[in-house]
Amino acid sequence: MQDTDPATPRSQAERLAAWVRLEQTPGVGAVTAQRLLARFSTPQSIFSASHLALREIVSDSVARAVCEPMPDACAAYLDTVFDWLADPDHHLLTLDDPAFPPLLRELAMPPLLLYACGRVALLSAPAVAIVGSRNATGQGAANARAFASALSTAGLTIVSGLALGIDAAAHEGGLRGPGSTVAVTGTGADRIYPSRNEALARRIAQEGCVVSEYPLGSGPTPGNFPRRNRLISGMCCAVLVVEAAANSGSLITARLALDQGREVFAIPGSIHAPLAKGCHILIREGATLVDCVDDILIPLRVAPLATLARQPDSSASLHAAQRALLDALGYDPVGADALGALVGCDPAVLAGRLLALELAGHLERLPGGLFQRVKR
Known about the structure:
The protein is of the alpha/beta class and 376 residues long. It folds into three domains: 1-86, DNA polymerase, domain 1; 120-310, Rossmann fold, CATH 3.40.50.450; 320-373, Arc Repressor Mutant, subunit A. 43% of the residues lie in helices and 13% in strands. Strands 1-2-6-5-4-3-7-8-9 form a nine-stranded mixed sheet, with helices on both faces. A three-stranded antiparallel sheet has the order 10-12-11.
């Protein structure tokens, strides 16, 4: 391991090195690490223990791995970690660090380490997770953005997973308020995935916080994402599901939240919308139905805003024919033929009006030739 930065006290560097080494030791997973820490209190004490004392807690092979000198690969990784920590906005929080998120400590198997970029104080702030589909509709993204903005304005930090769709919209909304946002990634904190969210991730690292339990350099392995979901729900007092298919990973996050004793909220949708099915499932299972931000703030004992329900009607500036078309469209997906029959409009004229409304952001075009109104 290279010499540490002079600004980093050697005792602190040695403490961090022991935590990293513990996580990197072959055979030491979350369960084994918890058993060792319960017995020896700190990683430094674990590596100072005798083989005989270790053998009382773990298998012979693990005890030998702990007693062996630090492997070259681990020493090289520690150099990488300390190089990364040279940036003052980069942080490595250990399970015994006062800045470690207190709600995460309550998990059955909390992470040993959290790599964070940005404002680590947000990791301990009151927070709400907002999750949902990667293939979000325009209305779903607008809902996520609006709810996140209102909750952040109320002082709550918005936590999500930096995915496309609902996650990205939630982060954007969170950045609009003082609560800001935290992105929990399924890669190392030095990697950005997906690449399309690179600009957003860099902004979050400056104004909010990007956090990961995975070692630096870790790529987007599929198994990482379900595992990181427990952190998204675990560091929050509640989870809001905005849009989700019946088999969505967002339902995993919601059910993890229930297991962790967190509140779960869901926004209902059309009975014809595939991305409403998951929310309807959660509501049937006991999640609280939400149609305005106060439905979340009041149960969480945060001062109500009543902002979403009082937004002005954005269609007021439309001419009569366009307003009539929006009224006929309602909020369920409708095909052009059915719309034409409702308003008695020539197909060519209807197509022009639909395009104008789409370009103005009042409706979106869905697969299968369907259109859906967007409440802005």
